[in-house]
């Protein structure tokens, strides 16, 4: 087998032109028309979020045109995963990554297979709502028809604290993940109906960026959101939002928080919103330790010290960061089934105030906070697809792998992982990008070594043939998605918005009829 | 602002220097307008580029097919265009604002002279600027497998 892809530098010089179409024409000019027999590496990517797309991008970019193909499976009719459903509506520039994904999708060697879920629904994950019914293709079928499979399907549920926190099923207590999915139009969460009119006191449990997103959406002037791609249903609900006081509560101290300074700064600069400063006991250790502070921690401290641009006195809404509180229960008032307060164990840091790894221990004291609406934002949970249980690491919250390659377990050959299912559900798009590049590198190096590839696999054609009559659903192609995309933008522009998302599967598919 | 380039196909693969040809923007740039920038790649190659005043480092790098991603399209919303500026030139660039500093907080391998490429615009004072592309992630080590 001619290992021409080893001379990457040479090829980069000859073929390093940014547009795939241009490269394809160039390659054709030099080598004649593409034939199917050129394809030596058929890759299936499961999940169309940033991890899947960045892996696809790197594989196609670093192989000679036509040697590799990528078929991308996505359970929803629409692509982009958390780039579409996780990134906040007031962070549109973060979604610019989709331009790169569109470029990848234009490649003649890329096929989008939407509305098609790989693997059966794990039992541990709640069943889907009436807004979305998945269509299943078994993973084993993919393994028969592809040289390599990249699992990049992310995290599909919340970390479950129901064994240690009571009252999570009370009316008015929600998963932050579900709330974000709801306002971003994810079909699985449209039935959430969060009651933000119940009262003024909101408690958000968690010190990551998702918790700050939730706080910001609760506190932001609704007019600032009207022109974004937040759903109309969310605008309607949030317009009646009565929340005036948000407590962002974390189990550890300020130096252990996972949120980042950009998101803290956004909260501090919200119009008419005031920060109730953290207690002195949380601020003085920063001062005492200032020479040792790492850059982000130092800047966080400065942000907390400076406070919000609107003073506490002038503000109509307020928020605070509360530290060293671990939730024990949400409780209702006598005779009610709605949440009225949240109870916490007061914790103590066991060690260095500044270290990210410092653990906490209960002091034996308790604290109660008023709570008319509560949000749990304590992290996501991944699950193995059916058949992959033996390579799943529950403690680490991802599938076992080495640099993206699944090494142990039944049928590990040809299996790779990228994104949150590879390293755990944390990290922004930039981290996922580098992570995906690493996975792509490993795949290409295995291909170079002859460990994978060259089996004359038939990919999606083979899968379709095997499914036969069982393939009774509408498979959404990339050009189908483009029609849905166009329709969403048109609906949006009629009401002065960037787009108005379809929020259920049937509406998405109706565009294609 | 679009920079059109014609690439000189490297005649020798063993050469450590890839020389790019003249930048053109609606006709030839005059000597006065050319600002010389050198990118040092992750492999240690030096790429010499002539660019125009006002061009930012991300656009320049991508126009010359250097391995720099700009996930957010250059809008200061990620850290993928992170570059390390030669200390000699760092103070000649206007200081980063809060938004850029917030993104730099997240950059892998952050240094005292790190900047986001999309926020560094060329000026005459920066003629001769040298920047290095940082490592993307730490290299995997054996101990990473033991932890799990």
Key attributes of the depicted protein:
heterodimer, A: 513 residues, alpha/beta, 6-stranded parallel beta sheet, 5-stranded parallel beta sheet, 18% strand, globular, disordered N terminus, B: 148 residues, 6-stranded mixed beta sheet, 6 strands, 16% helix, disordered C terminus
Secondary structure topology:
The complex is a heterodimer of chains A (513) and B (148).
Chain A: H1 8-15, H2 20-31, E1 41-46, H3 50-61, E2 68-73, H4 82-85, H5 97-105, E3 110-113, E4 117-118, E5 136-137, H6 139-145, E6 148-151, E7 157-158, E8 173-175, H7 176-183, E9 201-205, H8 209-219, H9 232-239, E10 245-249, H10 261-268, E11 273-275, H11 280-288, H12 295-306, E12 317-322, E13 325-332, E14 339-350, E15 359-370, E16 373-376, E17 380-381, E18 392-393, E19 398-399, E20 415-417, H13 420-423, H14 429-448, H15 459-467, H16 478-494, H17 505-510
Parallel strand pairs in A: 1-2, 1-6, 2-3, 4-5, 6-20, 8-16, 9-10, 9-16, 10-12, 11-12
Antiparallel strand pairs in A: 7-17, 13-14, 14-15, 18-19
Chain B: E1 17-19, E2 34-40, E3 46-52, H1 57-63, E4 82-85, H2 87-90, H3 98-104, E5 114-116, E6 129-132, H4 142-146
Walk me through the structure.
The complex is a heterodimer of chains A (513) and B (148). By secondary structure, chain A is α/β, with parallel strands linked by helices. Chain A is 32% helix and 18% strand. Chain A has 17 helices and 20 strands. Chain A has helices at residues 8-15, 20-31, 50-61, 82-85, 97-105, 139-145, 176-183, 209-219, 232-239, 261-268, 280-288, 295-306, 420-423, 429-448, 459-467, 478-494, 505-510, and strands at residues 41-46, 68-73, 110-113, 117-118, 136-137, 148-151, 157-158, 173-175, 201-205, 245-249, 273-275, 317-322, 325-332, 339-350, 359-370, 373-376, 380-381, 392-393, 398-399, 415-417. In chain A, a hairpin with a 4-residue loop joins strand 18 (392-393) and strand 19 (398-399). In chain A, helix 7 (176-183) packs across helix 8, helix 8 packs parallel to helix 10 and helix 10 runs parallel beside helix 12 (295-306). The longest helix of chain A is centred in the last third of the chain and has 20 residues, at 429-448. Chain A is globular. In chain A, 47% of the residues are buried. Mean pLDDT of chain A is 91; it is low at 1-19 and 28-35. By secondary structure, chain B is an alpha/beta fold. Chain B starts with 16 loop residues before the first strand and ends with a helix. The chains are: A alpha/beta (513), B alpha/beta (148). Chains A and B meet through helix 1, helix 5, helix 10, helix 12 and helix 14 of A and helix 3 of B.
